[in-house]
């Protein structure tokens, strides 16, 4: 087993749920920890697989994260947590021409930027344990890695008008640009500990967030995204890539 354990946040549906299914199918992965909010009505409960562990986690709630760390500690044991996938996210369709609403914007920033940052900090001891169990100076998703599910809308270089009357993606785009910076800085901060950090854009995917007119199905997304997450190396550390690991400008 080259990847001891993977934790996916926001796994009740959409891309998170699809990733959990792909990791369960993979011979490379030992333990799959599907984290989701308590209120989630989830298809996860119907999956019968010894590799699967369900954990309750609201990524915006520190108490919930601390409890999840304790549970995951028990599940992963001395080999630690190999991959943390910060997938949970929200899109609230907020645009410049809307009534100013600080709460809506802050909620998006809290879920999409602050929470991946907090998750990395709280889960750091378990990730470090995984990295320490494979000494050396290699960076890979087989050793220890944080993957932040970002969006091409967070690319400052590729930025388009976020509110042309149809699109209302101002807070969301800003949040994904922010999480890209989180990824880049963490890749530097964690370099000394052998933990990689990468931002990945999944594509425009048919989920509740992406909508039914999105360009690819969930299967088309996760059949590429999951293997990419499992094969990250030094080359991707600190970078921003699509689901097939083609580089995207920050
Ligand atoms: P969905 O809306 O289908 O699913 C979002 C998931 O995030 C749900 O499981 C939801 O849980 C969970 N979630 C939201 N807030 C929290 C929270 N506070 N704590 C824990 N879980 C939470 O979205 P997608 O699957 O499409 O998106 C997944 C990720 O991919 C997001 O980060 C998104 O920004 C990104 N992405 C998606 C694209 C797309 O086209 N779909 C394009 C680019 C990026 P619950 O069921 O409890 O609400």
TrEMBL record:
<dbReference type="InterPro" id="IPR020904">
    <property type="entry name" value="Sc_DH/Rdtase_CS"/>
</dbReference>
<dbReference type="InterPro" id="IPR002347">
    <property type="entry name" value="SDR_fam"/>
</dbReference>
<keyword id="KW-0560">Oxidoreductase</keyword>
<dbReference type="InterPro" id="IPR036291">
    <property type="entry name" value="NAD(P)-bd_dom_sf"/>
</dbReference>
<dbReference type="InterPro" id="IPR051468">
    <property type="entry name" value="Fungal_SecMetab_SDRs"/>
</dbReference>
<dbReference type="GO" id="GO:0016491">
    <property type="term" value="F:oxidoreductase activity"/>
</dbReference>
<protein>
    <submittedName>
        <fullName>Uncharacterized protein</fullName>
    </submittedName>
</protein>
<comment type="similarity">
    <text>Belongs to the short-chain dehydrogenases/reductases (SDR) family.</text>
</comment>
<dbReference type="Pfam" id="PF00106">
    <property type="entry name" value="adh_short"/>
</dbReference>
<dbReference type="GO" id="GO:0005737">
    <property type="term" value="C:cytoplasm"/>
</dbReference>
């Amino acid at each position: 087993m080259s990847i001891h354990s993977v934790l996916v946040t926001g796994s009740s549906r959409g891309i998170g749920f699809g990733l959990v299914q792909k990791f369960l199918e993979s011979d490379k992965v030992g333990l799959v920890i599907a984290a989701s909010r308590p209120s989630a009505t989830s298809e996860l409960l119907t999956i019968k697989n010894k590799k699967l562990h369900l954990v309750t986690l609201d990524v915006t709630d520190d108490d919930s994260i601390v409890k999840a760390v304790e549970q995951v500690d028990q599940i992963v044991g001395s080999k630690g947590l190999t991959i943390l996938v910060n997938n949970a996210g929200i899109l609230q369709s907020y645009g410049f021409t809307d009534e100013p609403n600080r709460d809506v914007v802050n909620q998006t920033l809290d879920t999409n930027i602050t929470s991946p940052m907090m998750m990395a900090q709280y889960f750091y001891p378990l990730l470090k344990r995984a990295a320490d169990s494979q000494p050396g100076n290699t960076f890979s998703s087989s050793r220890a890695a944080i993957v932040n599910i970002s969006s091409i809308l967070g690319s400052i270089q590729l930025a388009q008008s976020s509110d042309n009357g149809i699109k209302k993606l101002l807070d969301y785009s800003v949040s994904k640009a922010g999480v890209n910076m989180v990824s880049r800085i963490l890749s530097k901060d964690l370099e000394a500990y052998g933990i990689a950090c990468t931002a990945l854009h999944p594509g425009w995917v048919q989920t509740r967030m992406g909508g039914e007119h999105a360009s690819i199905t969930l299967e088309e997304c996760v059949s590429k995204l999951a293997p990419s997450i499992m094969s990250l190396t030094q080359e991707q550390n600190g970078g921003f890539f699509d689901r097939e690991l083609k580089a995207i400008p920050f």
